[in-house]
Design a protein that fits this description.
There is one protein chain. The protein is built from 13 helices and no strands. It is mainly α.
């Protein structure tokens, strides 16, 4: 089986899993939004989903480098399916209380803490280095197509099936994704310097080595902290999107789905274009433009009147379009420059820091959005993100990242 077929089989399974997870994710978001109408509780739900990644991400990444990555991915998927089953069984008999939904989001995220660095570390073992950026673009498109389909299905089926039906779709998707990985032979990463030692280094030592490797690549190190600031400001936007559509613009779940789908169509198109084009030769330019075109439409969205939903949907498309133009080149740079045997712990550390940034952002936004309004938070976030793009572009380490 050649690398393209292996990549295709794994990501077909992942696309199905993303689709079913998106159905459940949107169902949970709408369930909370419709039953509470609270920005604070939506932020709390996102907080519960990100906390395990923030706390466990670095440790999970170190385990990914120790364990068989193939079976780590399968085990994480099946664990997530098991947690979803708990919610599904409860929802068959009664309306799930908020505490149960928060607990399910929390425990599902533990599985994601292992699955995310595992699949990021597997990709460069299958894909030749010169195709990593393009494959990152196609990967983003596959994920967003699954997200679009999941959001659309959720909008239609949520009023009919309720939360329970969405859960069983998610369980089936996780099982299919696990089966796809099972049938693909994944090579082992090259041995690291400490692989042959009789006494393995401690867990904290392994995590520290990931930090040192990133610090040695100054461009990647700047991107790490730039990305942390970006996530701190941007992540609350995802949590507050439904309230922008439902509360500020006075829409229904249909309008909320339209905004989410516009965002996802933009991501899909951006991913496809990146997959075909590959981005500018200097990938820092592609990433800087992406950050700028994330910030400006968000700021413009915050200035819209309550009757401007059509423009909000258009701006959502532009924000979505910009996302893969950053994540694709950045992921490929890390996969190229970090030795494969360290990728699990590096991606784990990266995910942990991003999740901590998200949690801080969610705590701040959940409180402020209730006071100043969701639209004002969009305006402030957009201006901060656009300013970050300028700072990143002027940094010499980012400008010279290809030579780093």
């Amino acid at each position: 089986m050649n690398w393209k077929l292996k990549f295709g089989v794994i990501w077909t399974g992942q696309a199905i899993s993303v689709f079913t997870s998106s159905v459940l994710q949107m169902a949970i978001i709408w369930y909370i939004a419709l039953t509470t109408n609270s920005a604070l509780l939506l932020s709390l739900a996102s907080f519960a989903g990100f906390l395990p990644m923030a706390v466990l991400g670095s440790f999970a990444g170190a385990f990914v480098d120790r364990w068989n990555r193939k079976f780590t991915m399968i085990g994480a998927d099946l664990y997530i399916a098991l947690i979803s089953t708990v919610l599904g069984v409860y929802a068959l008999f009664a309306s799930p209380p908020l505490w149960l939904i928060l607990a399910v989001l929390f425990f599902r995220s533990i599985g994601s803490a292992f699955h995310t660095p595992a699949i990021s570390a597997v990709t460069p073992l299958l894909v030749p280095e010169e195709f990593l950026t393009k494959c990152a673009g196609y990967t983003q498109s596959i994920q967003t197509i699954g997200f679009i389909a999941g959001t659309s299905v959720a909008a239609v089926l949520f009023p009919i099936w309720g939360l329970s039906g969405m859960v069983w779709l998610d369980v089936g998707g996780a099982i299919l994704a696990s089966a796809a990985v099972l049938f693909v032979k994944i090579p082992s990463p090259p041995k690291t310097e400490d692989s042959g030692k009789a006494e393995k280094p401690g867990m904290f030592s392994e995590i520290k080595s990931a930090f040192e490797i990133l610090r040695a690549h100054k461009g990647l190190f700047v991107l790490l902290w730039g990305g942390t600031i970006f996530m701190m400001v941007y992540s609350p936007i995802n949590a507050l999107y439904p309230l922008m559509s439902l509360d500020y613009f006075g829409g229904t779940t249909t309008e909320a789905a339209i905004a989410e789908i516009a965002f996802a169509i933009g991501m899909t198109l951006g991913g496809v274009i990146l997959g075909i084009w590959g981005g500018f030769k200097k990938r820092n330019i592609t990433m800087t433009i992406s950050i700028l075109f994330s910030g400006l439409p968000l700021a413009a969205s915050g200035l819209l009147p309550p009757t401007g939903f059509v423009f909000f949907a258009a701006f959502s498309f532009l924000v979505g379009f910009s996302v893969p133009l950053y994540t694709g080149p950045h992921t490929a740079l890390m996969q190229e420059k970090i030795p494969p045997g360290f990728l699990g712990r590096v991606f784990g550390l990266y995910g942990s820091l991003m999740s901590i940034a998200m949690l801080i952002g969610l705590v701040v936004s959940g409180t402020l959005a209730e006071i100043i309004g969701v639209n004002t938070w969009f305006l402030i976030s957009g201006l901060v993100i656009a300013s970050l793009a300028v700072v990143m572009f002027l940094n010499p380490h980012v400008r010279n990242i290809e030579k780093d």
